[in-house]
Amino acid sequence: MTELGIMFSGAFLAATLLPGGSEVLLVALLNKTPEAWVALVAVASIGNTLGAMTSFYLGRLGRLAKSPEALATGKHAKGLAMIERYGVWALLLSWAPVIGDILCLLAGWVRLPLISSLLMILIGKTIRYLIVAAAVLQWMA
User: Known InterPro entries for this protein (predicted)?
Assistant: First the structure.
């Protein structure tokens, strides 16, 4: 598997509800092939966004199993409050540890619009990977 395939797979899996740090993988691959930084950031952003959209759709499916009251009072209450207050804009934080996965799941659960949710997730995750890449490349210079 190529570096780009590894980056895509790692980023996709890290964005689902499985644990994983795709930033560490990006750093390792940037150290190996710094000239491929644009492709690595693009592939990581796309893979991570598609993984987040998997959580988004799981949220939509979960709506059939959970009542609104169950989520409003449970461990997801803080994320649900953010989604209700900020709407799709909260998904700019989809990259954040712990809360990011929950925000994507809840965005699907409350049926936020698909395209605007996708764009906000992509923007948030791309900015995160650009910051990581810039830091690594600056450190290597």
Answer: DedA_domain, VTT_dom
